């Protein structure tokens, strides 16, 4: 989880880059301009440009328009986006013939569009992460509600005090991966903002969970004192991003600080308390650190589909499995500790 935060920070930086070699290329610019004016590249014309051409007096009414593949309604491939994509494909073909390597366009590699998805592999792996969190949540609920002993005073409730925190975490993580899938399916301002904001909310929340779990302080006042400033800071930051200025650099710095902080907290805590599941925790930390190399050493997409970022999304799938393994082990560990403490107290009362 802590590594998610760090990795999310790096991925947000990668996605925020604007003005790349590809879109500065003169041939690409000319192609895009011509396509937007005529709705066609060479002899292929695009359905999404049809309406704008009709407004031009039907000058190209004799040309055949190619109907786009599935789901034209939601995909939002308007004429400009369609022209940019098709010109990118054409330029990349020319570059390959000339023996040149692929370049980025508007901060993204030239991906093959599949089923109208802009970055199909990242979409699939984002959904896989979402499913893994959903599975983690359901198995966690089954464990704490059905398999582990319950407190029997009045309403039955789990012994594990952090159940609610982890449930909220899973919902935020699921929301984050949902927007990640949508963003990779189609990168527009709305989807990008939603992806960033949901990622920031997970990073901030995981910092709170890290502090509360490792502190293990039952005093409500202490918890409120620690959590309130972080929530206030997060709310201010997200409002600033939404209403004032979407500052990528500032967001990146804040994410990094929160990410590094929780990474240190979990690693040191696991070492000091000799937690029985500390090896799972460290595996996730080390695995995440190794996965981060994929974000640092970026490369063009293999077969037009798998770039470093999408592979990072793939790597986090098994790491999420192990992370939920740690959470469930922690639930068992705390429940055993608390039920043993109850037994000891009952024994003392009997002796008295
Ligand atoms: Zn991503």
UniProtKB/TrEMBL annotation:
GO terms for cellular component: endoplasmic reticulum membrane; Golgi membrane. Its main location: membrane. The chain crosses the membrane at residues 123-145, 166-184, 196-212, 224-244, 250-272, 279-297, 309-327. Pfam families: Per1 (PF04080). Residues 1-19 form the signal peptide. It is found in: Endomembrane system; Golgi apparatus membrane. Keywords: Golgi apparatus, GPI-anchor biosynthesis, Membrane, Signal, Transmembrane, Transmembrane helix. It is a multi-pass membrane protein. Belongs to the PGAP3 family. This is Post-GPI attachment to proteins factor 3. The lineage of its organism: Eukaryota, Viridiplantae, Streptophyta, Embryophyta, Tracheophyta.
């Amino acid at each position: 989880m802590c590594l998610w935060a760090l990795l999310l920070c790096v991925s947000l930086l990668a996605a925020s880059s604007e003005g790349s070699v590809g879109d500065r290329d003169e041939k690409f610019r000319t192609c895009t301009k011509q396509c937007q004016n005529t709705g066609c590249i060479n002899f292929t014309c695009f359905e999404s440009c049809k309406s704008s051409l009709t407004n031009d007096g039907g000058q190209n009414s004799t040309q055949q328009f190619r109907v786009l593949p599935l789901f034209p309604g939601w995909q939002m491939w308007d004429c400009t986006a369609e022209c940019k994509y098709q010109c990118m494909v054409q330029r990349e073909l020319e570059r390959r013939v000339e023996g040149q390597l692929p370049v980025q366009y508007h901060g993204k590699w030239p991906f093959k569009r599949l089923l109208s998805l802009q970055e199909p592999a990242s979409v699939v792996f984002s959904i896989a992460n979402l499913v893994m969190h959903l599975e983690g949540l359901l198995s966690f609920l089954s464990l704490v509600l059905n398999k582990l002993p319950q407190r029997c005073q009045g309403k039955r409730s789990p012994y594990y005090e952090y159940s609610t925190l982890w449930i909220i975490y899973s919902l935020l993580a699921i929301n984050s991966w949902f927007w990640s899938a949508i963003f990779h399916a189609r990168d527009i301002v709305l989807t990008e903002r939603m992806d960033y904001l949901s990622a920031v909310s997970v990073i901030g929340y995981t910092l709170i969970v890290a502090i509360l779990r490792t502190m293990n302080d039952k005093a409500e006042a202490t918890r409120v004192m620690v959590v309130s400033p972080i929530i206030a800071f997060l709310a201010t930051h997200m409002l600033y991003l939404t209403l004032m200025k979407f500052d990528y650099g500032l967001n990146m710095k804040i994410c990094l600080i929160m990410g590094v902080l929780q990474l240190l907290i979990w690693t040191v805590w696991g070492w000091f308390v000799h937690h029985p599941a500390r090896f799972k925790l460290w595996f996730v930390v080390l695995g995440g650190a190794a996965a981060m190399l994929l974000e640092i050493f970026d490369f063009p997409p293999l077969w037009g589909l798998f770039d470093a970022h999408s592979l990072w999304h793939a790597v986090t799938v098994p790491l999420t499995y192990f992370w939920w393994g740690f959470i469930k082990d922690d639930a068992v560990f705390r429940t055993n500790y608390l039920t043993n403490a109850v037994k000891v107290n009952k024994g003392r009362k009997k002796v008295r």
